[in-house]
């Protein structure tokens, strides 16, 4: 999952980025509205964490601009996703401030200072709603993934996955049965400036197939990877250590 943090306080941005990365997110940070809009226009972020008091304006202005895009953003590759889940994080704690933020299009609102675990729980709830799920667990046949604990079971047995393996599996499960390109998967797993090998996605897919069964993830040559909506019967996975 790819998160954009729009926060001009370096200390808050750094601590929040660390918490998000430990929870498995690929994270990018922008200290201004202009930088955030530029990032949103070129990368398919899954969630936006938005401060309000920024050096070049109010975060609500960016939120309103994002929501005004409407259907145009779905058909135009150079525009951000207008329906992206947005969490406002601010020191503005008045009831009128919270009402204004939510009525402007935010999906949730948290007041600084906040507990990192509460923020992560709110993000999970937002992303669950955005994907149309009501249950906290993601189930696919005998495969069960828990985003909160970052654990996976298949056929009742725990399967140890590395951080990027888990992120890749989560991305594919949430998108099923859509085919995701290698570039889209790279953007979901790696932030700006993070080094990655040219075959990193192929390696992660290979590890997931070895641990969870060859039939789980399908390849469309020259296009990308997907998990079918229909569940394939697979042998019980092998116990293994994280990569």
Structural write-up:
The chain is an alpha/beta fold and about 240 residues long. Helices cover about 40% and strands about 20% of the residues. It folds into 2 domains: about 1-130, 3-Layer(aba) Sandwich (Rossmann fold); about 140-225, Arc Repressor Mutant, subunit A (Orthogonal Bundle), CATH 1.10.10.10. The chain has 9 helices and 13 strands. The strands form 4 sheets. It has a 5-stranded parallel beta sheet with strand order 2-1-3-6-7, sandwiched between helices. A 4-stranded antiparallel beta sheet has the order 8-9-10-11, covered by helices on one side. The chain has a two-stranded antiparallel sheet with strand order 4-5. Helix 5 (about 95-105) links the parallel strand 6 and strand 7. Helix 7 crosses helix 9 (about 200-210). The longest helix has 15 residues, at about 115-130. It is globular. It starts with a strand and ends in a 17-residue tail after the last strand. GO terms for molecular function: phosphorelay response regulator activity; transcription cis-regulatory region binding.
Summarize the SSE layout with pairings.
Layout: E1 2-6, H1 10-22, E2 26-30, H2 33-42, E3 47-50, E4 53-54, E5 57-58, H3 59-68, H4 72-75, E6 86-90, H5 95-103, E7 108-111, H6 116-130, E8 138-140, E9 143-146, E10 151-154, E11 157-159, H7 163-175, H8 182-189, H9 200-212, E12 218-220, E13 224-226
Helix pairs in contact: 7-9
Protein name: Response regulator transcription factor
InterPro entries: CheY-like_superfamily, OmpR/PhoB-type_DNA-bd, Sig_transdc_resp-reg_receiver, WalR-like, WH-like_DNA-bd_sf
GO molecular function, one term: transcription cis-regulatory region binding
